[in-house]
Design a protein that fits this description.
heterodimer, A: alpha+beta, Rossmann fold, 2 domains, B: mainly alpha, two-stranded antiparallel ribbon, 6 strands, elongated, Ribosome production factor 2 homolog (chain A), Rpf2 (chain A), nucleus (chain A), Brix (chain A), rRNA binding (chain A)
Amino acid sequence: MSATKEAVVSSLLRKAKTRKGKRILEAKEPQVHEDAKRVLLMKGNRAGLDVQQLLADLHDLLKPECVYLSRRHQGFHPFEDISSAEYLCEKNDCGIFLLGSTSKKRPFRLVVGRIFDKTLLDMLELSIQKYKPSSHKDFKGVEPCKLGSKPLILVQGPAFEASETMGTAKNLLTDLFNRGRPKELLLGGLDHLIVLSALDHQHSSAALPPSLSSSIEQAPDSLSARLLSGPAPSSAGGASRSTPILFQHFRVNFKKSDSKLPHVELVEMGPSFEMTIDRHQMADKDRWRTAVKVPKEVKPKKVKNVSTSVLGEKRGRIHVGVQDLSRLHTPHHHGDAGKRPTKRRKTDTAEPEADTAT
Amino acid sequence: MASESDAQNDPMQRFTPKRLMGREADKADGQPPLRTSRSAVPEKADNLSYDLQHLLGVDITPIPSHDQLNSMTRDNAQLLVNRVFGLPTHMTDEGLVATLPTRPTYLLPRRLPIPKQKAKTRWKKFAETKGIVKRKRSRIVWDEVKQDWVPRWGYKSLKANLDKATPIVEVKHGQDPLEDPFQKRAEERQLVKAKQKLREMRNKLEGAGVRLPAGVANLASDVANRKKPKDDISTSLKRAQVSTASYGLFDKTARGETRTPPKKRRKVTPQPVSDEKASYQKTLHRLFKGGGGEIDRGKAGNIATFEEETERSRRNKVKGGKVRKGKAVGGRGGKGKGIGGKGGKGKSKR
């Protein structure tokens, strides 16, 4: 513990020597409005051609807010030791890491992990099947999307709500593919859509149409794939029968319609693949709660005394103060001069609050 | 989608609605439309949940079959796009720009925790209890020597000019005539700077919840700066005597060694102005009105009469000689504050 205390002290007393350095250090401090997390893409100890191709595809998709480390990382097993992943994320200023690897037991794996406050928050190991790279003949001739354009994201299927693991997968994948945190969006610039569909077992892999089941790696159906890839993966989390998640990437074309809104046409531009959750590490509940806290500055301020009526009229209530009745001009009655105004008149005029429509 | 226009052109196909699916079939059933127009309203009911900050649409309805997945995806994409286009927009040079909502509905975790509020420095804490408010000081001040406005600090400032304007410093009585007064002043300034730096560092660490170790004797510097060597040794000895875990309780005493019992540390907490004033008033009230129980008025009277009598007997003994004036009992000597006078600054009278 003393080492960490020393680290805290040294980091506190660390002072930038230049203006630029100061700005860099300030940018590394916690911010109220955070940008999208940068993604770190890495290759594991062994990475087959398909793994490398997938990482390249994802790199293209996530550009420019990502770092691709092309060097192989020896002995990098995040489920056994997370420290090197945390270190590399810290060093490269990244919030999510993607590690692609090949092994005899786990032939085509992608580990997706998230970092919160310099340590791991949650992590999933995805087994990839039916991978079609974006260079596949099915996707030929499709105009690529612009670099760094924000994607639309669709998450489909009830299975995402069925289990905690699938909920994590939904959150993690949304976090991964959701790029940028713009305040404003150029509507004409929308050009691609990412779809994550949780396929139920009845119409997953085996029931896929021939166009989708033709893949680089001729993966067998999900059941035999599980048999081939060794025992049921229950080491870290115990995902029994994981629902396959289909990843698709579409180009969005807007066509004129009979209304003001455009008609949407989708053309698949690749890559596409199916993933099942293998090992996983869920977030600690307390840490999760602190991680999803919304800063006070982001929360909208409560507007008082303004309401909207049924007809959509905005109504504001204002306080006009107490009326000074002693200076009220009343008709002069010379006969009863000096007498106070009658009580009836007083109640007529006293209206401290009034409704005014704006 | 391209088949739609073909279908409407070909009269044979127009009346075979089985070949068309969904929306196109409905259109083909009725009167043929004048122009080929696509609808922006999908067949599907809008049962998605959205987070438009992330441009996210979530559909939890079951996926009917794999063949229908693509049409379902398109319909959902249409619904999502309709929502995005329904956001408040404004026109720019590049085109129509939508303003995205600032608050997310689907929470994604942050990368770093929410920034903490800056910890208050020792001075700020003290100033708050005392009600001291920072006032803005003007950046420039009038320089009497230069007869001009000059900066308060920094280059060509009032202080710098004053230093330049005093080339001679008188050696006062008891000062070392060989000492360089300018150098001495520079050294003092360095010391002040160093102390301030230490304070800043301490505030930073204390703000982060790190406790600094208590001060220890720096004998080397003490020896170098010593003026009264004996005092110095005795303070060092005192420090050493209490520098064990038991506060020196179980230590053997050397021959001739004296020990002073450790002083009880008085806890000084900064008082708010109102409390301070009240406590002073209470004391004064007690003194003048005799309301409190601490002063025994009878006893005080006895002491006064006793003193008076001894004085008189002394006067009787020394006949005709000049008698020194005795202390007037009960009188107020020196400066003092009356009741209800100006008691400190801060709160105004009600």
